[in-house]
Amino acid sequence: MEEIGSYDAKTKLPEILRRVEDGEAFTITNRGKPVADLVPTRVGNQKRAEIAIKNILKAKKHKVSDDLLKALKDSDRK
User: Fold this and answer.
1) For residues 29 and 51, is the Cβ–Cβ distance under 8 A?
2) Fold type of domain 2-76
3) 3-state secondary structure of 60
4) pTM of the model as a whole
């Protein structure tokens, strides 16, 4: 976890929030002493997991027949 001073945290908040959104975490310090941790929210992780699950289920719906697989395999051999 990267440490960042409270003044820098205040002046660079939009940039820091973008980095947190991308998964980074920070410890905010005041005069060198840790006072708070800024970490990604669980809601974001949950939404990413839900999207991944939906994509997996969507992909499972597209079944390919054995005949089509054999034809694709055979067409590559020509």
Assistant:
1) no
2) YefM-like fold (3.40.1620)
3) helix
4) 0.55
